[in-house]
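Reading is simple: each integer encodes one residue's backbone shape. An example follows:

___
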Amino acid sequence: MLKTGLHEMNVPAIDRSTFLSTLPAASADRTAAMWIVGISSILFALAVPFAGIQLPPVPAFVASYQSALAVSDIITAVLLLSQFSVLRTRALLWLSTGYLFTAAAALVHALTFPGLFAPTGLFGAGSQTTVWLYMVWHGAFPLFVLGYAWLKEKDGGPRVRGTTSNVIYAIVLGVVATMAAFTWVVTAQHDLLPVLLRDSRYTPTMIGVVSFVWSLSFAALVSLWFRRPHSVIDIWLMVVMCAWLFDIALSAIVNVVRFDLGFYAGRLYGLCASSFVLAVLLIENVRLQARTVGLVGRLREQSASDRDFYGKRLALYGAVVESSNDAIITQSLNGAITGWNRAAEHLFGYSAAEAVGKPIDIIVPEDRKPEVRSILNRISSNESIAQHETVRLRKDGRALDVVLNVSPLRAESGEIIGASKIAHDITEEKQSREKLRREIEERQRIFETSQDLILVTDGFGNFIQVSPSVKDILGFSPEDLIGHSATEFIHPDDLDRTREEMRAARRGAVKRSFEARYYHYDGHEVTLNWMGTWSEPVKRHFFIGRDLTEKQAAEAQFRQVQKMDSIGQLTGGVAHDFNNVLTVITGTIGILSDAVADRPELAAITKLIDDAAERGAQLTKHLLAFARKQPLQPREIDVNALALEAAKLLHPTLGEQITIMPQLTEDAWPALVDPGQLSTAILNLALNARDAMPDGGTLVLETRNVFLDDGYASMNADMVAGSYVMIAVSDTGSGIPPELIDRVFDPFFTTKEVGKGTGLGLSMVFGFVKQSGGHIKIYSEEGHGTSVKIYLPRSSGVQETEIEVLQNAPITGGDEKILIVEDDALVRQYVVTQVKSLGYTALEAANGAEALTIIDNDKTIDLLFTDIIMPGNMNGRQLADEAARRRPDLKTLFTSGYTENAIVHHGRLDSGVLLLAKPYRKSELAKMLRTALAS
């Protein structure tokens, strides 16, 4: 069945082929061949006993037989050569050559046969000529069949290259030349040949030659049998070889003389042998012609139906074009409009009468005209254009967004004569698409820049989308969470409540607000306040989580301030009232002392009362200092001179086992402070340091000019950014446990034994510093000592120093990659922000192990910026050593809450190693980063 367009045409299938040399043999072919061979065998068996019976000579039989044989072989050869001209197989060429040679031999045999055209035959034939020709003829054909059998393959075997006509001419000439040579030998050289026939009877030589020829024929039959698969020609060639064997046997083996029964019967078998392949070829050709005639008849019948079909289809196509919602336009290759449907009229505003014949430029904006020429060039090159978005103009001048599909338009000859365009208006669609794109872009920007955590989960609680803010809030990257269940990150105590909130959202509750704790990457808990909702169409939960860590810290700090303020008000009030009482006591005790001066026992009692009152007065002083209500007498002082004076006073107080090391900045700024209270504060800090070093140690007194910036101020309440004079008291003692560090400034808190202290020393220092408008910071690690830094406001009205000028120099950043290692999450976040603001690429780690993992995975890190004192098995010094072992080229900058002098003298940092002491301003950070990177 053939298809033409949408129309189907039934054509009878052809189940046979003229190329019988490649067509596989069917069972019908094998059955017919077996029947013929069987009948031939029976007839042969019946003829053998009577083969020697002499029959009357009939020369006309010989002439007729030879003529029929030659004609049959020539026709067979011609048909085989016609197949060869198409298939070009050497096997077919070899077989057709055999048939040509047999035809030529048959003709020469007839011409030289005695008594047929001449008493002894033509060409000077002798008595042995026809016998030898018969042997050559019957021995050569099996050789050609053998060649065919061994050359043929499943696909026909090797092919002949070059022109087939030249090959055919060559084999024809070759057969003629070969036959001429054989004729010359058996006629002109007749006397040289052995005698095969004497007195019309066969000689022993004849018997040997015949046996050899018969064996060749049998070998050809066997070769055909074993050279599978068999084609149709193979089957009938085997039938031919069977008849050929019967021919030789009757004509030259079992018969006695010429013109006996075997003579005639053998030639009949030979005639049959020459006709089997011819008959099959002719039958197949007749069948093919019959089917061709039938096919032509059906095609003629179909053509009339096709004309009607295509006429209807053309009318249908015309209706489709006119009823299409898309504009369909045809134009010639020079751009002239040749077709314009109703949708085009509606879309562009031109009627068909107005548009047809006009150039397509009437609907093309000026800046798009080169595009039209490009499209026509592509169409003329047989190229189709699909989904091409562009702009066209209406008649009223309004621009339209359209999508074009353009195809070549062909004439009946196949020549491209124009273009067919389908234009679809996408103006509204494009506007909607652009609006959607903007909305998606806006939502994506919100998603990517949100400081809150945005999560999308499926109905089972598995993360589908996670906003990048998860890195800052939980320390994970989005890829760490996507695909995982939320239960892996939620605190176990908050799981049930979270699940209940999700169930409520799926029941229709919207914008549910609840709190849940999540685990940070470094293991600590982060409390998040969640707003969640459920979308039924997409089967997704949507959550927005706000980090409450800073809020909770601020609330805790606010509560602490309130508590301290309440305690301060209480203690201040108590101290004030107690001072009034003590005033009365100390005033009257003097009178009482004078009255009992002559009574030693009572004078001792009054002295005891006076000492107790003095101790009470000192206690109220401490309470007033803590409450920031003590009367201060601030004045501009030289902090270096005060620190040196304090160091002298401390030598006898602290004892010989403690070494005092002043480390004072030469150009320290003056501070506006009460010198007496400052000396007392230094004394209190030194006494605490002595108690932390029972076996001796080192006490470092330092002064330095610092500028605390807004970033540092934002992390410390009640502190204003500005210039400060720092006074640091550092020791090499036992340090303070982490759980107690936040309580050291609380009043009446002490770790000393009962009777060894009031717990007001540090709280008095804290109150004095705050009342003076300053700031105090304590750094301590168990086993590494303590450093307390007092920041006092710089006295105004002084000239800018050389150091200050240097600090106010332009800040220089860079583009290197820096790894920041800091165990305090808030400080780490602050440092990362500052480093990034300087242009650097910042990586962060909470401990040494995490930092080493990052170093191993990223070979482009330029600088390690690490805190020295960190919890765990690896401090900053050990981290730097291990990093240097893995990356010898990696530079290192240390930072610490301890001062540089304290660190060096504790023995934890080699001299000359770069250290940036906390706190530091941005300019100091920038300077030290550049110094470290250039080192």
Remarks:
- The longest helix spans residues 261-323.
- The chain has five domains: 58-292, 324-431, 458-552, 631-793, 817-934.
